[in-house]
C-alpha cells in the first residue's frame, strides 16, 4: 500500500548530507578544469592577480567565472582580498606543475572524463546543457524564446516530479517555521509541483494560492493539489513570469528555488516586476540556498552553484546579493529563517 503524502509532515532527518554526496562530482570537475584545462593556478602563481583582469585575459563570462572562483575559494585553494586572487598554501605546494610536491599530473588523470569535459565546455560557453538542442531543451527552466524541457509534456512531468522529492522534505518545514496570519493569497512563482503552496495552505487555513508556471508543469501540480483536497483554495495560471502580467490580488509572493535558475539581470527584472504587484505591507519570500556574502563558501553551496550553472542560466547567490536587489526594489528584509537541506527563507516586506 502506498504511503499517503498528505497532509505533509516534517521529516525526522535533514537530507542535506545526501545532497552533498550527490553534488560531490562538481568538486572534481571544477578542480580538474582549473588545473588542467585553464591552467588557472599557473596564471596566478605566487603573485596576487586582479580577479577581473584574469577573467578578461582567460575569456570567461562573469557568471562562469563566479562559479569557478567561488568553488575554488570554498575548497580552500584560492584566496581573495579586495579583488586580488592569490594561491593558498596547499595550492602553492601541490597544484603548480613545477613545485616539488606537485600532484597536478595526478589530477590530469581525470582530464578527459566526460563530466570534466562537459564542465569545461559549460564554463567556456556559459549556457545550460542542451539549451541549443530543440529536441531536448534546457532542463528546469521555462521562458519564451528558450528551448525548454519544461515545455514538453513528458520531460516537464519527469523533471517536476524529480524536484518534488526535495520539496516533500523541505516544504513542510518552511510552513512550520513561517506561519502566515490572516486570509492571504499567495502567488507561487514558478510553482513546479505546487508542494510549497500546499504545505503553506495546510498550515494556514485562511490562505489561498495561485500557482504560476508553464502549462505542462501545472498538470503535475494540479494532481498534487487534488490529492491534498485543496482544489477549492488553489488557482492555476499558466504563463511566462518574464513575459506575462503578474496575477493581481496577491498578498504574498513566494520564490522558492526560482531565482537561482537565472542570471543577475533576469533576477533583478523579475523582482522589480513582482514587487510592483504587491500591496503596501505585502510580503516577498525568497526561499533558496545562500552563499556566504564574501562568495567564498560554504563548499556544499558552491558545488550546488556549479550544478545550477550547468543546468540553468543561473547560479547560487548570497543573502547580501538578494538583499541589495530587494532593497533597491523597495522591500525591507524582516528576517531570515533556516529551513532544511541547506535552504532558508528571506522574508521581505513592502
Which helices and strands, and how do they pair?
Blueprint: H1 16-22, H2 25-37, H3 40-44, E1 49-50, H4 51-58, H5 62-74, E2 78-81, E3 84-87, H6 89-94, H7 104-107, H8 114-125, H9 153-177, E4 185-189, H10 195-203, E5 208-213, H11 215-227, E6 234-238, E7 252-256, H12 264-277, E8 283-291, H13 299-311, E9 317-318, H14 319-328, E10 332-338, E11 343-349
Parallel strand pairs: 4-5, 4-7, 5-6, 7-8, 8-9
Antiparallel strand pairs: 1-3, 2-3, 8-11, 10-11
Short description:
The protein is of the alpha/beta class and 350 residues long. 43% of the residues lie in helices and 16% in strands.
Question: What coarse outline follows from CA principal-axis ratios?
Answer: elongated
What's the CATH topology label of the largest domain? Rossmann fold
Output the helix-strand order. HHHEHHEEHHHHEHEHEEHEHEHEE
> Could you say which structural class the secondary elements and strand pairing correspond to?
alpha/beta
Assigned CATH class of the largest domain: Alpha Beta
What is the overall pLDDT average? 94
**Count of β-strands:** 11
Largest sheet: 8 strands, mixed
User: How many distinct domains?
Assistant: 2
Amino acid at each position: 500500500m502506498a504511503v499517503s503524502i498528505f497532509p505533509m509532515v516534517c521529516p525526522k532527518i535533514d537530507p542535506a548530507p545526501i545532497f552533498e554526496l550527490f553534488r560531490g562530482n562538481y568538486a572534481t570537475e571544477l578542480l580538474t578544469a582549473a588545473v588542467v584545462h585553464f591552467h588557472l593556478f599557473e596564471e596566478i602563481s605566487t603573485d596576487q592577480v586582479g580577479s577581473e583582469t584574469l577573467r578578461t585575459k582567460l575569456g570567461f563570462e562573469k557568471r562562469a567565472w563566479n562559479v569557478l572562483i567561488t568553488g575554488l575559494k570554498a575548497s580552500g585553494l584560492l584566496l581573495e582580498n579586495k579583488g586580488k586572487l592569490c594561491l593558498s598554501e596547499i595550492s602553492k605546494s601541490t597544484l603548480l606543475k613545477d613545485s616539488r610536491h606537485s600532484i597536478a599530473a595526478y589530477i590530469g588523470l581525470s582530464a578527459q572524463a566526460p563530466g570534466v569535459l562537459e564542465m569545461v565546455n559549460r564554463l567556456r560557453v556559459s549556457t545550460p546543457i542542451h539549451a541549443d538542442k530543440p529536441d531536448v531543451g534546457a532542463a528546469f527552466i521555462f521562458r519564451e524564446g528558450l528551448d525548454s524541457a519544461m515545455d514538453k509534456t513528458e520531460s516537464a512531468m519527469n523533471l517536476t516530479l524529480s524536484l518534488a522529492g526535495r520539496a516533500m522534505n523541505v516544504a513542510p518545514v518552511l510552513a512550520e517555521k513561517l506561519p502566515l496570519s490572516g486570509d492571504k493569497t499567495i502567488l507561487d512563482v514558478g510553482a513546479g509541483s505546487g508542494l510549497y503552496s500546499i504545505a503553506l495552505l495546510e498550515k494556514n487555513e485562511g490562505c489561498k494560492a495561485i500557482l504560476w508556471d508553464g502549462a505542462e508543469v501545472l498538470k503535475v501540480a494540479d494532481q498534487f493539489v487534488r490529492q491534498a483536497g485543496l482544489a477549492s483554495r488553489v488557482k492555476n495560471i499558466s504563463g511566462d513570469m518574464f513575459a506575462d502580467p503578474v496575477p493581481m490580488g496577491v498578498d504574498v509572493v513566494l520564490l522558492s528555488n526560482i531565482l537561482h535558475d537565472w542570471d543577475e539581470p533576469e533576477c533583478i527584472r523579475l523582482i522589480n516586476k513582482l514587487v510592483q504587484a504587491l500591496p503596501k505591507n505585502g510580503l516577498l519570500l525568497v526561499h533558496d540556498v545562500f552563499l556566504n556574502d564574501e562568495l567564498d563558501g560554504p563548499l556544499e553551496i558552491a558545488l550546488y552553484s556549479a550544478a545550477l550553472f550547468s543546468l540553468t542560466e543561473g547560479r547560487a547567490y548570497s543573502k547580501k546579493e538578494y538583499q541589495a536587489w530587494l532593497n533597491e526594489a523597495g522591500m525591507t528584509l524582516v528576517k531570515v529563517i533556516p529551513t532544511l537541506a541547506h535552504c532558508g527563507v528571506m522574508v521581505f516586506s513592502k
